[in-house]
Write a structure and sequence with these properties.
By secondary structure, the protein is of the alpha/beta class. Helices cover 36% and strands 16% of the residues.
Length: 238
């Protein structure tokens, strides 16, 4: 019998001076480091809220290797920490997906660690889609043209090849790869990653419940508390 779904956060361990360089002019290096940790904690909380009946097993696909002790402070057991394999984004996703499926999981779902308000129900929808008969890929489209989630029940290396990673073409090209291999696609609701200064402002508006944000996601308790400290920082137009 297949193991339950592998559900993994794809993340970088905070506190090592890397990641989110585009946010530093707005927030400063210390706040960016703290925000990165809050994002991981809040995404983890969203995944931990998945029903036990789903059989999900929780992983963090992380870099850099050797930073397990730092990351373990954020993700205690039952989280399993798995170092990333591969030199590019596509190679990391392909290798991670293949490893989880080879380990006997009925499906594998990779979730971006930069979406702190991601609703748990979106991941539930992904598990439900992958539990239905027939092969498919589940994609969670992101506002920036990428995706915040990808789920598979069988390895499909082509989905990760010839993709201009970190551009607005990621989702479009991935859909083209799926069409090439005749793989049905299930799309989840649109959501967003926090990579750019305007994303922080969108997040701030969402957590404040402003109608203009047009978003209403998870509680993001840790991120909310940290941004409250930043509440007096003058906002600039997105």
């Amino acid at each position: 019998m297949a193991r339950g779904p592998a559900v993994a956060i794809v993340c970088k361990t905070p506190g090592l001076g890397a990641g989110k360089s585009r946010l530093r002019p707005l927030l400063g290096a210390e706040m960016v480091e703290r925000l990165s940790a809050c994002f991981i904690l809040d995404v983890a909380a969203a995944l931990e809220a998945l029903p036990d009946a789903s059989g999900r097993q929780l992983y963090a696909l992380f870099s850099p290797a050797g930073s397990e002790a730092l990351l373990r402070a954020l993700l205690p057991m039952p989280w399993t920490l798995v170092p990333r394999q591969g030199a590019s984004v596509g190679a990391v996703l392909e290798a991670g997906m293949a490893a989880f499926l080879a380990d006997g999981h009925g499906c594998a779902i990779l979730v971006n660690g930069d979406s702190p308000t991601l609703p748990t129900e979106f991941v539930e929808q992904a598990i439900a889609a992958l539990s239905s008969p027939g092969d498919r890929v589940v994609l969670g489209p992101a506002l920036d043209g990428g995706y915040y989630l990808i789920g598979l029940k069988r390895p499909h290396p082509r989905l990760f090849q010839d993709i201009p990673w970190s551009t607005a073409e990621v989702l479009t090209r991935t859909l083209e790869r799926a069409e090439e291999i005749a793989l049905p696609v299930v799309r989840l609701p649109m959501w967003y990653d926090v990579d750019e200064p305007q994303d922080v402002l969108r997040l701030r508006a969402e957590l404040a419940g402003k109608p203009s944000s047009r978003m209403a996601g998870g509680p993001a308790r840790h991120t909310r508390a940290l941004l409250a400290e930043w509440a007096d920082t003058p906002a600039v137009a997105p």
